[in-house]
Amino acid sequence: MAEVVRRGIELGTFGGTYDPDKVAVLTIGAVDGMSIPLSVADPEITPASAAQDVMAALRERLRRAAEPEAQRPALSARSGGA
User: Fold this and answer.
1) Residue 66 and residue 76: Cα distance in Å, rounded?
2) Which of 35, 55, 67, 72 has its CA 20 to 30 A from that of 79?
3) What pLDDT digit, counting tens, does each position of 8-23 carry?
4) Which residues, 6+ apart, have CB-to-CB distance to 55 below 8 Å?
């Protein structure tokens, strides 16, 4: 995963603010963390909303510095933006 982030930084697709190895660890942690409420059938979290929240967090970490805030999707309404 870190190699994908490095390549995205090289291509200008991702910003280089965060260390790719740390982004990889945070991504795995976020996915793992979202699996807990899914495994206990939390009615407020669906696979789709969990994926959306993880992707929103990744977008925030990987966005280019010049990307306007308006282009960044918000977390799902269920999460309350946190």
Assistant:
1) 24
2) 67
3) 999 988 888 889 999 9
4) 73
- H helices present in the chain, as ranges: 2-11, 20-39, 47-62
SS3 45: coil
Residue 59 has a pLDDT of 86
Q: Residue 27 half-sphere exposure, CB side, CA atoms within 13 Å?
A: 20
Are residues 64 and 45 in contact, defined by beta-carbon separation less than 8 angstroms? no
* Tokens read off for 52: 């959306």
Q: How many residues make up the chain in this entry?
A: 82
3-state SS assignment for residue 12: coil
Q: Is the per-residue pLDDT at 3 higher than 90?
A: yes
